[in-house]
Each structure stands twice: as structure tokens, then as C-alpha cells.
């Protein structure tokens, strides 16, 4: 069978079960676009390549499938870099296809040539430059395996134009074998036995879960572990949703803007069962004062996460879901009868922290951003898929929307990309057409990829955008208020467009609330619309996110108001 | 914790870009490379990289794990503390004034190295040995006058069980 590279690519993508590609065409990928149009793979035309990558990312996070993008060479390729780095930091499975100038021109500074493999080497799990059409099918198959297995991540494939349009006799690749790639899924049982012993003997334990539990779909096993052993649970930002936010054992998020009780727990606990986390600096604060009394059991599929930032007593390399399942089976064999009694004092202490210092804000006759998120939570019954931008909006979403299920909180955790939320919401809406998808945004970050409004409109995607509009770059302003003598250098943003008119200009619905009593009606109207909606909430301008741990301080030393 | 010299022997896919992945890992994460030597193994699909780095124990543990994470890395051996042989080769261009020639040749003899090029005013010596030997011969030649030097960096292998 004689096939061009572009035809081979489509064939393999179909075999890999790809149903949607987010992309933007250009000169060197015309052959691929020509073939793409002949398939039933849906192409979502974004307005900027960064949007394509974030949309594929949102699609992957909401569906658990591999997100796929296709862009052209040069600027098309460089525009994907932020999105790729974001997916890499948050371990999101993606395959990104970039066009490249024909192989004989590579290195000649040809028109729209850039060494994208070189550029993305440190921010991809792996990347390829395909030099012969004969290698294409194998490489694409390898890329999908690498992206989705082990600790997932983005894989980039650079496709020179001649590789795409050369016709060869196609032979399907044999079984894909990568001798050097073999992630560890099954944990070492000896370590698990040690973990069981620590869990049984500890008086003040906590479970600390992260994005690894979402990625391995281990939420059920995690909840079982917590209930079985009566251990309270906290999550990193990336883990929110793996443990029900309504459960009595729920501590809230830990870290720089974590709850008082979660952060206090880290200081007091004698055991941390850490699952699918990497002890990022936003979680630990000052590392040498982090959890001074705790032994750490650390379960993660990536060995480099373990002992990277903090000392670990029991390292367990393995898939979170499999490992938690095995741990639960081991615990079944143990007599856990007195755990309820044993943990009572600890849980009472936590309840006390919760009641004396809960998450709170002062209601006034001006809209509080926290109130908007709280109302959104009530009205959606905690069932919506929430994406966020980055900054205060992201933290208030994390604090006041009590996630019940995994894959419902989609946020740029590691890289912290402003402009992530809208394209990610588009991707999530495509993955879950029946779900309500809401982007909680700030007035600053929404403008970083606002052009994707047109994409949402073009495909009739009813994503809802909640703008917490304080006319500041709020998080940096908050730091300036607290640590830089209120010198608001570069953070005053008083020239935003009229977001209601802007929504209307894109063909969407625009709504605005300026008083607290307007919040609920606007949310009700916006959420019930079948169209793309921007809801612009004029919120208290100088509201801060609390609790807050100053950067580099111990995590238990929080500013509370 | 104190920094110590570690010799890593890394088997990798013999493909373009692999060295850059490894070098990039070291520069991107702030690790250092003291020396680096790369060549194909008996299997033309595999290359061996011998890399010397200065690091404390937790860091070198992290380096080894990070290297393993690269898709093109097949195997990483940490040779420090193990039973291994190491060699380095140097080409040393030394000033050879008539009054020094005999002295240089005596050193060549003692260190069992070779003179591979002779000119009006210089000898070029080929030396192989471990670090101790390298340091010793350089110390002896320095007062005579070293014009130029090229070193391969350390290469090393485990000793087999006897």
C-alpha cells in the first residue's frame, strides 16, 4: 500500500483513538490538513497556537485521554512552548505535532524554521524530529505510549514537510518496544509492609494527595484508605477533587494558601502518607521546618519526585492506584479496631482548628470574590468542571469550590500560566459536552487568551466565564500590599475592555454584577444559558487571599487577615 | 554534606540529540560536569557516556534518577565506591630545549608514556593513566614548560568478579 506521510499519520492517529485535534494551519502542514479533512477526526481551529495546547490540555484533564495538537513550523511551533511547559509541569498526556521545513532546508535558517526539538527538550517528556517517512508510524505510536504511561507528559513530534508528502510503501510497525523505557507500576511490597506498620502506630497521621492520584484514577482507593484508617486528608492544588470536599475527614488544601487546619496539621502530624505529590515549594514553605515531627511515606510513580525536596522514611515507587489498592488489601488483614478511638484526640484537635480559624471573609455591601465562588458552588451543587486562570482567582476557586470528584478542577498548577483557563475550558467542554464548564478568571489573565472566545463561539461551546474583576493584577498587588509598602508597581490595570460588550462582539452573552444582590441572579441567568457567557463581577478591589504563608516562611506561620 | 567526585557510566541510544538531552539536564538543573567522554559501544545502536560530576550524595542520587528518566538512557552505573578501573589519556605538548630533552625522556620512561611527535622545540607525549598518574606527570612537566594539553576525560568500567 502506497501512502504519503500525511496519510500514514491519519491512519495511526485513528488507530490511537484520536477523535479531536486542536490546531492552527500553516505552510508546511498543508499536506496534513488536506488529509485531516478527509477523516472524521474533529479539528478545532483555535485563534492562537497557545490556545490549541491549553485546549488539548483541558481536554486531556477532563477526559483522561491524550490531548493532540497540530501546528505549523516557526512561530506556530514557538507559540506552543508555554502550553507544553505547562503540561509538562502538571504531567498531562499530550502529543504535539509541529510542522518543520523540508529536511534538506533544516539548519539553513529557512523561512519559518526554528529548532523546536531543541527548544522543547527541557519541557517535554520526550520529543522527536522525524527524518524519514518510514519512521513516522513507529514514532507516533511510541509518542502516544510515552505520553500516557508512567508519569504522563507532553511529547512533541516535529514533521518536516517532505516527510509528510513523500509517498512510501507502508508497512505497519511491529510491536513497539522501547528497551530504555519501562515505568514501574507495581510497588515493592516490603516498603508497603513498612508503611502499614507506620500507619497503625501513628497517633497523628495525615494523607497528602496530589495530581498523581488524579492521573492514575486512584480516587476511590484513596478515599477507602482514609476511611479505613481514619486519617484526615489534605490535597495539593493539583489533587483537589480526589477526596470529597464535603467529607468530615477533609482538611482542605495545604500550602501557601492552604487552610489553617491543613497547614497546622503538617506542623503537628507524626506521619504523612504522601500520594502522587512532589512537595513543591508552594506546599512545603521553608523545607527544613516542614513537618518536623513527621515520618513520610511517599508513593509516586516517578522516582525523581521522591527525596527531591524532603527526606522520606518509606519510599514507594509505583502507580498510585495500584499501590493504594495493595495497601488497602494489606490493611484489611490488620486489626484496625481501635483506630477510631486512637485517632479521636487528633481529629478533635483538627475540629478545633477548623472552628476557631475557618476559611472566611467579611461580607460587605460590595461584591466579595469569595462570595461569587461560594454562590457558584451552591448553584452548581459542586458538579461543574472548573477551570481557572492564575492568581487570586485560582486560589479562591481552590478554597471556596468544594470539589467532590477528580477531573473537575483544571488549573495550571506547576507553571502557573495566566491565560490557561479559557482555552482549557474549551477543551474540557469538547471532552464533556454535557457538563457545565466554568472558567473562574481574573480581569488580567482572561485577557491573555481572550481571542479564544471566537473559538468557543465557532463551535457553539457553552463555556461560562466568571471574571472576578478587581482592575488589578491581584496576586502581585497582594504581595505589594503586604511586603512592598503598597507600592503597586505595574499591577494597576484600569484599561480593560468592557467585558459585556466584548462578549457581545464575539456573539456571546455578556452579563455584569456590581452589587452583592446581583451576584446570584447573574449567575443563575449565565449558567442557564445555552451560549458562551461572560459574567463580569466588579469585586472588592483590594481583597487578599488568606491564609497566606509568605514565600520562604514555615508553612505553619500564616497571615490570616 | 560534602561534595565528592562521582563517575557515572551511562549507556544511551546512539542517536542525534541524546548528548544534548544529557548536557541540558545537567545545565537545566544546575548540576556540574567535570568531564565527559562519549563513544559507540560494541553495539552500534548504543553509546557509552562516561561523565564525572561533583555532587553530594542526595544530589547524585537525584542525578542518577533524572538520567534514568530520559527516554534515550538505557542504563546508568554509578562507579563511586565500586570496584572499577578508570583511565584517562592526555596529549601533552611540552617545551623541549636541548638541556631538558634527556630529563623529559627519563620522565617518559618512568611513566611509561610515548613520544608521538617531535619538533625543533617540543615533544608531544601520549600519557594514559588514572588521575593520580596524570597529576604526577603534569607536576613534573610543569617546571619544564607545558605548551598545550588535550585530555579525554575519564573513562571507566566495572571490574568483573574474579
Automatic annotation (TrEMBL), chain A:
Catalytic reaction(s) noted: 2 pyruvate + H(+) = (2S)-2-acetolactate + CO2
EC number: 2.2.1.6
PROSITE patterns: TPP_ENZYMES (PS00187)
Thiamine pyrophosphate enzyme TPP-binding domain location: 390-536
Matches recorded under InterPro entries: Acetolactate_synth_lsu, AHAS_TPP, DHS-like_NAD/FAD-binding_dom, THDP-binding, Thiamin_PyroP_enz_cen_dom, Thiamin_PyroP_enz_TPP-bd_dom, TPP-bd_CS, TPP_enz
Domain Thiamine pyrophosphate enzyme N-terminal TPP-binding: 4-118
Any one Gene Ontology BP term: isoleucine biosynthetic process
Coiled-coil spans in chain: none
Keywords assigned: Amino-acid biosynthesis, Branched-chain amino acid biosynthesis, FAD, Flavoprotein, Magnesium, Metal-binding, Thiamine pyrophosphate, Transferase
UniProt cofactor(s): thiamine diphosphate; Mg(2+)
Domain Thiamine pyrophosphate enzyme central: 193-324
GO terms assigned for molecular function: acetolactate synthase activity; flavin adenine dinucleotide binding; magnesium ion binding; thiamine pyrophosphate binding
Pathway: Amino-acid biosynthesis; L-valine biosynthesis; L-valine from pyruvate: step 1/4; Amino-acid biosynthesis; L-isoleucine biosynthesis; L-isoleucine from 2-oxobutanoate: step 1/4
GO cellular component, one term: acetolactate synthase complex
Any one Pfam family match given in the protein's UniProt record, by short name: TPP_enzyme_M
Textual note on the cofactor: Binds 1 thiamine pyrophosphate per subunit. Binds 1 Mg(2+) ion per subunit.
UniProt cross-references to Gene3D superfamilies, sorted A to Z: 3.40.50.970, TPP-binding domain
Family: Belongs to the TPP enzyme family.
Name used for this protein in its record: Acetolactate synthase
Source organism per UniProt: Candidatus Desulfaltia bathyphila
UniProtKB/TrEMBL annotation, chain B:
MF-aspect GO terms: acetolactate synthase activity; acetolactate synthase regulator activity
Presence of the UniProt keyword DNA repair in the record: no
Pathway(s): Amino-acid biosynthesis; L-valine biosynthesis; L-valine from pyruvate: step 1/4; Amino-acid biosynthesis; L-isoleucine biosynthesis; L-isoleucine from 2-oxobutanoate: step 1/4
Keywords: Amino-acid biosynthesis, Branched-chain amino acid biosynthesis, Transferase
SUPFAM superfamilies attached to this UniProt entry: ACT-like
EC number: 2.2.1.6
A cellular component term, taken from the record's GO annotations: cytosol
GO biological process: isoleucine biosynthetic process; L-valine biosynthetic process
CDD domains: ACT_AHAS
Enzymatic reactions: 2 pyruvate + H(+) = (2S)-2-acetolactate + CO2
Family assignment from sequence similarity: Belongs to the acetolactate synthase small subunit family.
Subunit-level organization: Dimer of large and small chains.
Protein role: Catalyzes the conversion of 2 pyruvate molecules into acetolactate in the first common step of the biosynthetic pathway of the branched-amino acids such as leucine, isoleucine, and valine.
Protein name: Acetolactate synthase small subunit
Originating species: Candidatus Desulfaltia bathyphila
Amino acid at each position: 500500500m502506497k501512502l504519503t506521510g500525511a496519510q500514514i499519520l491519519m491512519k495511526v492517529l485513528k488507530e490511537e483513538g484520536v477523535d479531536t485535534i486542536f490546531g492552527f494551519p500553516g505552510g508546511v502542514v498543508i499536506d496534513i490538513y488536506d488529509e485531516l479533512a478527509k477523516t472524521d477526526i474533529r479539528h478545532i481551529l483555535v485563534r492562537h497556537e497557545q490556545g490549541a495546547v491549553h485546549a488539548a490540555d483541558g481536554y486531556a484533564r477532563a477526559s483522561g485521554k491524550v490531548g493532540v495538537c497540530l501546528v505549523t513550523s516557526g512561530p506556530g511551533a514557538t507559540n506552543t512552548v508555554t502550553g507544553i511547559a505547562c503540561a509538562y509541569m502538571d504531567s498531562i498526556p499530550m502529543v504535539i505535532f509541529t510542522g518543520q521545513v523540508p529536511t534538506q532546508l533544516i539548519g539553513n535558517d529557512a523561512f519559518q524554521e526554528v529548532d523546536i526539538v531543541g527548544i522543547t527538550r527541557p519541557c517535554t517528556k520526550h520529543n522527536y524530529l522525524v527524518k524519514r517517512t518510514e519512521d513516522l508510524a513507529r514514532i507516533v505510536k511510541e509518542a502516544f505510549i510515552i505520553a500516557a504511561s508512567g508519569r504522563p507528559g507532553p511529547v512533541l513530534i516535529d514533521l518536516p514537510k517532505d516527510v509528510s508528502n513523500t509517498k512510501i510503501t507502508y508497512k505497519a510497525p511491529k510491536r513497539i518496544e522501547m528497551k530504555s523505557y519501562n515505568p514501574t507500576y507495581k510497588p515493592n511490597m516490603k516498603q508497603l509492609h513498612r508503611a502499614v506498620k507506620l500507619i497503625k502506630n501513628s497517633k497523628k497521621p495525615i494523607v497528602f494527595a496530589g495530581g498523581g492520584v488524579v492521573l492514575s484514577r486512584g480516587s476511590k482507593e484513596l478515599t477507602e484508605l482514609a476511611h479505613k484508617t481514619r486519617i484526615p486528608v489534605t490535597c495539593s492544588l493539583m489533587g483537589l477533587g480526589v477526596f470529597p470536599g464535603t467529607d468530615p475527614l477533609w482538611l482542605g488544601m495545604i500550602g501557601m494558601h492552604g487552610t489553617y487546619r491543613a497547614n497546622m496539621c503538617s506542623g503537628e502530624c507524626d506521619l504523612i502518607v504522601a500520594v502522587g505529590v512532589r512537595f513543591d515549594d508552594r506546599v512545603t514553605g521553608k523545607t527544613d521546618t516542614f513537618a518536623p515531627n513527621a515520618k513520610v511515606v511517599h508513593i509516586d510513580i516517578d522516582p525523581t519526585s521522591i527525596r527531591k525536596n524532603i527526606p522520606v522514611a518509606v519510599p514507594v515507587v509505583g502507580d498510585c492506584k495500584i499501590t493504594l489498592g495493595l495497601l488497602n488489601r494489606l490493611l484489611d488483614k490488620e486489626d484496625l479496631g481501635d483506630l477510631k478511638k486512637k485517632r479521636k484526640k487528633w481529629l478533635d484537635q483538627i475540629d478545633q482548628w477548623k472552628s476557631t480559624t475557618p476559611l472566611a471573609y467579611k461580607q460587605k455591601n460590595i461584591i466579595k470574590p469569595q462570595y461569587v465562588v461560594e454562590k457558584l458552588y451552591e448553584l452548581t451543587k459542586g458538579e461543574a468542571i472548573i477551570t481557572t486562570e492564575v492568581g487570586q482567582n485560582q486560589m479562591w476557586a481552590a478554597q471556596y469550590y468544594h470539589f467532590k470528584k477528580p477531573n473537575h478542577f483544571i488549573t495550571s498548577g506547576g507553571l502557573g500560566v495566566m491565560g490557561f483557563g479559557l482555552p482549557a475550558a474549551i477543551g474540557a467542554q469538547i471532552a464533556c459536552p454535557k457538563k457545565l464548564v466554568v472558567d473562574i478568571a481574573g480581569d488580567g489573565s482572561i485577557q491573555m487568551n481572550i481571542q479564544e472566545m471566537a473559538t468557543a463561539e465557532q463551535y457553539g461551546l457553552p463555556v461560562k466565564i466568571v471574571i472576578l474583576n478587581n482592575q488589578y493584577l491581584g496576586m502581585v498587588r497582594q504581595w505589594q500590599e503586604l511586603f512592598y509598602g503598597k507600592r503597586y508597581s505595574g499591577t494597576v490595570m484600569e484599561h480593560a475592555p468592557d467585558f459585556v460588550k466584548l462578549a457581545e462582539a464575539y456573539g456571546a452573552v455578556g452579563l455584569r454584577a456590581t452589587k452583592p444582590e446581583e451576584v446570584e441572579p447573574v449567575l443563575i441567568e449565565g449558567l442557564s444559558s445555552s451560549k458562551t457567557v461572560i459574567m463580569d463581577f466588579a469585586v472588592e478591589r483590594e481583597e487578599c487571599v488568606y491564609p497566606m504563608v509568605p514565600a520562604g516562611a514555615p508553612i505553619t506561620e500564616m497571615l490570616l487577615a | 554534606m560534602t561534595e565528592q567526585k562521582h563517575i557515572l557510566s551511562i549507556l544511551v541510544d546512539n542517536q542525534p540529540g541524546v548528548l544534548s538531552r544529557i548536557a541540558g539536564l545537567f545545565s537545566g538543573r544546575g548540576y556540574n560536569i567535570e568531564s565527559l567522554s562519549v563513544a559507540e559501544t560494541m553495539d552500534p545502536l548504543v553509546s557509552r557516556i562516561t561523565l564525572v560530576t561533583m555532587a553530594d550524595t542526595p544530589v547524585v542520587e537525584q542525578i542518577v534518577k533524572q538520567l534514568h528518566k530520559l527516554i534515550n538512557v538505557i542504563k546508568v552505573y554509578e562507579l563511586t565506591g565500586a570496584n572499577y578501573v578508570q583511565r584517562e589519556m592526555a596529549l601533552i605538548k611540552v617545551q623541549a630545549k636541548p638541556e631538558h630533552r634527556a630529563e623529559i625522556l627519563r620522565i617518559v620512561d618512568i611513566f611509561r608514556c610515548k613520544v608521538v611527535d617531535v619538533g625543533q622545540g617540543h615533544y608531544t607525549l601520549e600519557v594514559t593513566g588514572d588521575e593520580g598518574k596524570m597529576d604526577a606527570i603534569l607536576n613534573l612537566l610543569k617546571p619544564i614548560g607545558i605548551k598545550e594539553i588535550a585530555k579525554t576525560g575519564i573513562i571507566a568500567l566495572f571490574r568483573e568478579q574474579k
